Amino acid sequence: xxxxxxxxxxxxxxxxxxxxxxxxxxxxxxxxxxxxxxxxxxxxxxxxxxxxxxxxxxxxxxxxxxxxxxxxxxxxxxxxxxxxxxxxxxxxxxxxxxxxxxxxxxxxxxxxxxxxxxxxxxxxxxxxxxxxxxxxxxxxxxxxxxxxxxxxxxxxxxxxxxxxxxxxxxxxxxxxxxxxxxxxxxxxxxxxxxxxxxxxxxxxxxxxxxxxxxxxxxxxxxxxxxxxxxxxxxxxxxxxxxxxxxxxxxxxxxxxxxxx
Length: 260
Ligand SMILES: Nc1ncnc2c1ncn2[C@@H]1O[C@H](COP(=O)(O)OP(=O)(O)O)[C@@H](O)[C@H]1O
Ligand SMILES: [Mg+2]
Prior knowledge:
The chain is built from 10 helices and 10 strands. By secondary structure, the chain is an alpha/beta fold. The chain has a domain at 7-84 and 175-259: P-loop containing nucleotide triphosphate hydrolases (Rossmann fold, 3-Layer(aba) Sandwich), CATH 3.40.50.300. The protein has a 6-stranded mixed beta sheet, sandwiched between helices. Strands 2-1-4-5 form a 4-stranded antiparallel beta sheet, covered by helices on one side. The N and C termini lie far apart (46 Å). Residues 18, 21, 23, 41, 43-49 line the site of adenosine-5'-diphosphate. Magnesium ion binds next to helix 1.
């Protein structure tokens, strides 16, 4: 079936079970191009598992996943990356032995279809591609405020910068859909606000569609016009920040967490 105009991601009735546990149960999400949607919920609600389904880390036991009308079910992670989906991880995963710049360059190289002879001869084609990679890496480092530490080992950076580097690297694969898994985790309120503004800015700059997981409700309220709330694998609410804030089921889910 051809994709409906403007729909980028379409998840229909997706479920996955780990043993007896329904980690995600009947999840539906349709995202338009350019949308920024928040996915929130208490710890263990199934948020990261949704990302693991979209990116092919796990296969759904039920349901269908489409990107621009193309089925994602059954595809390996690297194929899904090549189709235009990039993600960051809740627990930062950088190449610790590489510099900040090389972490970003590693992502850009998926676009360079160089043959072995291009690399051996280091001819014109090689030089052109290298030039493009350098330029693009420099631009991403600049945007994320990392140009001054480009030659430092990635893991020597303060935590907040490592989180920004993860996003810069994810953008290196030139995704149309960016999945951010608690990108503000561990940051102070000021850093969180700055990061949210940066996310909003890169969305416009790169024409991205973004699904943003966040544990803290107040963080997503500022930038997402649409928010989904997961609890025990089930979507218990969906709507604008105002609707979510007032929703009795959401209040109950978060109060339950605070009390436990
Ligand atoms: N690979 C796995 N094997 C078994 N259980 C898992 C696995 N991945 C996630 N879970 C369980 O699924 C539930 C949802 O986890 P997760 O998606 O990480 O939650 P969230 O990101 O919302 O905190 C949790 O109960 C978690 O323990
Ligand atoms: Mg998680």
